[in-house]
Amino acid sequence: MPKIAKELSALAVKNLKHPGSATPGNAVFAVGGVAGLMLQITPGGGRSWLLRTMVNGKRREIGLGGHDVSLGEARERARATKGEIRNGIDPLQQKRDRRKAAIAAAKRHLTFRDAVDKFLAATEVEFRNEKHRKQWRSTLDNYAMPVIGNLAVSEVTRDHTYKILEPIWTTKTETATRLRQRIERVLDWAKAHGHREGDNPAAWKGNLNAMLSKPSKVATVDNQPAVQLKDAPTWFAALRKRDGTGARALEFVTLTAARSGEVRGMEFSEIDWKAKLWTVPASRMKMKKQHTVTLSDAAIAILTAMKDAATADSKYVFPAIRGGMLSDMTLSATMKRMHESEIEAGRTGWLDKHSGRPAVPHGLRSTFSDWVGDMSDYPRDMREFALAHAISNDVEASYRRETMVEKRRAMMADWADFLGV
């Protein structure tokens, strides 16, 4: 028969001490009263209760509490635990399950606001720059946070998402579409990390598409205001009469249909003068892919003039007055002054045909797109490649070939002819 430990009194238990260096590690004393009940004492004097017993044929040590648990209470806990074991309950597994449930419950209380912070920190490398990151966040701050910012991500429903999107779905469609996608990504991240379960309430297919119209079918007045195609030659002639680096950069933006940032960061080393090509590095492209731009004679003429005027240490084609890269406000200010000059002359100015707002630099890409679609026979894929939009790898490979380069060169020359160069 196994040896039965002597039942110690509370005073005897109180007087138990760690043997010191003679016993490395923790010392364990049987206190009796319940078979397997032990007092564990650390070298530093810390005390805790253990129950050594068999569970499902395996020897286990089950913690019953620390120094604040009295001898009597420890014996009661030990008896109760052994009773559970006799009834087929594994106390250790039960404890693990409770801990797991507590962690899951805590995760489900993560607010949407905190989830956005964690998501942005986890996906920081996806953002092109700090400005892009702030734009991403500001959309959520302006529209989503007032509705679900303080709500646990586990409690966000389709009705919440609809409440956020519906007020701007037909008036700011592009913004609303991006907002929906951003909410969806945050909630996907939250689900992947155990903060919520079930379907994503911001998903489009099979969800919000039953409540909201297709983005392509509703008015989108938040697109960047563009110079109307019928006004483009007159507008471009007015631009060419203006002096300054900003005007020349804007002229080059128009001729190449490039983005403002790509042109403002353009360096002389990126130009192949002989082949009349401009290679924009992936680091400055929205799609993070190197992009080759064919240069018309009109575009080359601008570059030549900028090169002739450049200082020996200048690397930027369109530098700021005090050196460095031209600011994005410089081009915007040039277009604003052009519009104001028209108004002062008693004319309507350069207004977008859809929104009636004054045209801005980025809208010039839409003007080019309208020209390709409405006034030329060039294929849509060629236009999309020239605009550096997302296209299939096969199409991209095709338009990088020499023959397609020449066809693109012809397209940009025709565009320059249309503008009246």
Structure description:
By secondary structure, the chain is an alpha+beta fold. It has 3 domains: 10-100, Double Stranded RNA Binding Domain, CATH 3.30.160; 112-217, DNA polymerase, domain 1; 229-419, Orthogonal Bundle (hpI Integrase, Chain A), CATH 1.10.443. Helices cover 47% and strands 9% of the residues. It has helices at 10-14, 71-86, 91-107, 112-122, 130-148, 158-165, 173-192, 232-240, 245-256, 260-264, 297-309, 328-344, 364-375, 380-386, 393-400, 402-419; strands spanning 27-30, 37-41, 47-55, 58-66, 271-272, 277-280, 291-294. The strands form 2 sheets. The protein has a 4-stranded antiparallel sheet with strand order 1-2-3-4, covered by helices on one side. Helix 4 crosses helix 7. The longest helix is centred in the middle third of the chain and has 20 residues, at 173-192. The N and C termini lie far apart (108 Å).
Layout of strands and helices, then pairs:
Layout: H1 10-14, E1 27-30, E2 37-41, E3 47-55, E4 58-66, H2 71-86, H3 91-107, H4 112-122, H5 130-148, H6 158-165, H7 173-192, H8 232-240, H9 245-256, H10 260-264, E5 271-272, E6 277-280, E7 291-294, H11 297-309, H12 328-344, H13 364-375, H14 380-386, H15 393-400, H16 402-419
Antiparallel strand pairs: 1-2, 2-3, 3-4, 5-6, 6-7
Helix pairs in contact: 4-5, 4-7, 5-6, 5-7, 9-11, 9-12
Family: Belongs to the 'phage' integrase family.
Pfam family, one: Arm-DNA-bind_3
GO molecular function, one term: DNA binding
